[in-house]
Structure prediction request, 77 residues.
Amino acid sequence: MKTRMKLLASLKIWVVIYPSITLFLYLFGKPLSVLPLYQRTLLLTLALVPWIIFIGVPLVDFILRRLLPKDPKNSPR
Prediction:
């Protein structure tokens, strides 16, 4: 993978991860605060990794495809 593609992929993932973690902790932080840290972390990752992989990043990809013009270098000739 080229460096530019890796950077773009990491930015797309971050755009999904940051608000997802923030919302999760806002909604469930107090109820989960009674659990040990390792259990809270497990629950957080069990809930958010599938969300990020199957819904969040594909949604960001879809939005970017709609907003950004097509790259003429990658179009068939």
About this structure: The helical segments are 3-32, 37-67. The radius of gyration is 17 Å. The mean pLDDT is 91.
